[in-house]
Amino acid sequence: MTFPDIEKLKLLVKDAAKDELLKDFGHSEFEYKSDGSVVTPADLAMQNRLECELKQHWPMYEILGEEMTDEQQQAVIENSRVNDSSGYWCIDPLDGTSNYAAGLPFFAVSIALIIENKQQVGLIYDPIRDEMFTAIAGQGAYLNDKRIDHSTMVFVENKPVVAEIDLKRLPESLAVKLVTERIFASQRNIGSSAIDWCWMAAGRFDIYLHGGQKMWDYAAGSLIFKEAGGQSISLDAEAVFRGQLEVRSVLACHDEKLFKHWYQWINIPLDR
Hints:
This protein is an alpha+beta fold. About 35% of the residues lie in helices and about 25% in strands. It has helices spanning about 5-20, 40-55, 70-80, 95-100, 170-180, 195-200, 215-220, 220-225, 255-265; strands at about 30, 40, 60-65, 85-95, 110-115, 120-125, 130-135, 140-145, 145, 165, 185-190, 205-215, 230-235, 250-255. It has a seven-stranded mixed beta sheet, sandwiched between helices. It has a five-stranded mixed beta sheet with strand order 11-10-12-14-13, with helices on both faces. It has a two-stranded antiparallel ribbon with strand order 1-2. The relative contact order is 0.13.
């Protein structure tokens, strides 16, 4: 399978982030969407910019963006299923919008290419730190053109040094269990799912546990993490990415023994 020119894609995203995101960071207006989430003019400007440039360079692919309606998003997925040879970009123009609006330097652009209902290309760019995470299916994951190597990473098997856990979206019983039993040394919540996946891929977190992500939250990130050698599963014992708009839960770890320890502790039914 031939993939788009990843270098062209990286340059396109970097330039767009500089022009559309960095200029208003820290002093952006914002509104609340019907679901209670925050949206800024930068979200819309970045999505419009990406749509125009992606269509210009790769007109054969449709676009599924966070700022589209549910009906528009579903139509893109359905069209891709009807025509197996087609594909689409799944984009989050600004992941971590609440951080962006508040002036917190944790946000990113996330783009995945989905072909035949599978993640083929993933790119996440953090413009504050100028960190570009990329992956092509079967070809490994990279941070700023350097391949990510998990063999050099160190962890504490039963007491992770840092666990990225989003307690508010987990089932109540599991959240209470995590708080009362404290099987991790410390807990962080960055506020950007895209950065979460990338920092897991880079070994900056030991465990990732999230109760509900939308498709554009994990489409690129879970591919990057997988290509970096990590393992992930949903709390219902299915693959995290299934090519659907459904909200998905996540348990992820880059070490096999630690991963098994946690899914046994959580009691995920892996024999389903």
